[in-house]
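Supplementary Note 3. Input sequence used for the single-chain structure prediction.
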Amino acid sequence: QVKLVESGGGLVQPGGSLRLSCAASGFMFSSLAMHWYRQAPGKERELVATVNAAGDPLYYLDSVKGRFTISRDNAKNMFYLQMNNLKPEDTAVYYCNAIVTVHLVRGPYWGQGTQVTVSS
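The predicted structure, written as C-alpha cells, is reproduced below.
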C-alpha cells in the first residue's frame, strides 16, 4: 500500500537548520511530483514546496524562498526538505504528500507528520 514516512524534525534555535526526509513506498515514486506541507497550531495546512518527477523544484511558499530547498533521490524513493535560517514562524508539523492513483481512484496520501519547533 502507499506509505509515506517523514523524519528529521526536532527543536532548533532561530537561524538553525534541519533536513526533513520522506521515505515513499507502494507506488511509482519516480513518476510523480512530491510535496511538503506544514500545519501550525490553529492554522490551515499550507503547501511549502513541490518537486517534479525529474527533481526540479516547481513551487516554494513565498515565506520560505531562499531558505528551503526541496530535492529527491528517485533511486532511493526518498525526498527531502533542507531548511536553513529557520524562524519561529516555521514552527509546524511538516507532512509529505503525494497524489497517487490506486485502483483507478486518484487521491492524496499523507505521512504521519514530523514536528519542527524553532525556539530559543
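Residues 14 and 87 are 5 Å apart (CA to CA). The first strand starts at residue 3 and ends at 7.
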